[in-house]
Amino acid sequence: ISDHGLASMGYGLSGAIGAALAAPGRRTVLFEGDGGFMQNSQELATVAVNDLPIKLFLFSNEGYASIRMTQRGYFGGAYLGCDIRTGLGFPDWQLLFRAYGIPVADLDQRGLDAPEARELFDAPGPACFVVPIDPEQTYFPKITSRVTATGSMESNPLHLMSPDLPEDVARRVLGRRTAEQKELTR
């Protein structure tokens, strides 16, 4: 389970619990960012009490990546409330999962090729794999926003994601050039 772009913060763990309960005996795999995960981390109690076979891959980029990218792009890197340096705190993942009795492993470059990680993934019951992500990682494609003449933020329509489509693709898919399409939406 993954919400596209990891943008609907807080949905992942609840969605995985629902999927696991709907398909007893089947493993449920969840990919979730650390910021979104913290929105519903208390639901680890539900996972643990019901011994749900949820394998969580927790993308640890040490904060709210989308907010960090927005603050970098629109506010010159004046960061606030997006990571530990700017007032947002996250727990020690090892301690949190162990408190619920859920096995946890830090993944390295070997990923699931590491024997201990593969064993944990294949074992019954829940487990968490903490995947370190560069906090400065940028995500593409994405919907971008712009500041209007009145100073408010306005998002582009869904079909105008960043980076722009190459002109040949824009003509084939949209029936017009990317620049023409952008002008039509302003």
How far the N terminus sits from the C terminus, by CA atoms, comes to 35 Å
Can you summarize the main beta sheet?
4 strands, parallel
CATH architectural category of the largest domain: 3-Layer(aba) Sandwich
Give the CA-based shape. globular
The total of beta strands comes to 8
In the predicted model, the low-confidence regions spanning at least 5 consecutive residues are none
Strand content: 15-25%
Q: In percent, how helical is the residue content?
A: 25-40%
Total helical elements: 8
Please summarize what this structure is.
A hairpin with a 5-residue loop joins strand 6 and strand 7. The chain is an alpha/beta fold.
Keyphrases for this structure?
186 residues; 8 strands; two-stranded antiparallel ribbon; Rossmann fold; 8 helices; alpha/beta; single chain; 17% strand; four-stranded parallel sheet; 2 domains
